[in-house]
User: What shape does this take?
Amino acid sequence: MSKKSFIYRNSLSIVLITLMIVCLFGQVLTGWRTENKELAEEGEKLLSLGEYLHSGHFIQATFENWESEFLQMMLYVLLTISLRQKGSSESKSLEGKEDVDREPQNHPNAPWPVKKGGIWLKVYKHSLSIAFGVLFLASFLLHFYGSYKDFKTEEMAKDKIPARMWEYATESRFWFESFQNWQSEFLAVASLVILSIWLREKGSPESKPVDMPNDENP
Assistant: This one.
């Protein structure tokens, strides 16, 4: 372990974060050009790149997607505690207890909340779902803020009086933005759960061993 480089030991997270940054950069540039194209067609003032980063268009688009991702992961973590799928690599065994079900034991290399015990341990035992829940809530609120800001800008450009923020919370536009992303995330997870029953990817921890029977859970 000590002979492996930092990049080797953390290559998965490094690659994923790098891909996210590259795609976010692409979103910024293409979103900026798209928004300015629409503003030009309406005879409105064009936005600088800095102004675009503070616009409702960018904030709404960014956190609308983040919100659905964190919701997906939070529910997936929670649902896989008690729900099962026969033959899926994403499910626990249909019978018996697994290592993740046992109560934590205090030992020299245990995380500090385990050693501390009490309320710290109680929170730590559910810290993954709590973290995703907090990230979902923060992204949801920022999505709502960006969506309302974008809506308000559009209404003012049409010389209309925009609805108040609390009124906008009942508008179908905001909820359409959320539901269209939520359903796609649940479809993606369901596809992984179901397809992993019959299909394989040698070397991936998300797949069962290639020679494992379809109706067995790893």
Q: What stands out?
A: The CA atoms of residues 113 and 119 lie 9 Å apart. The mean pLDDT is 95. The chain is about 65% helix and 0% strand.
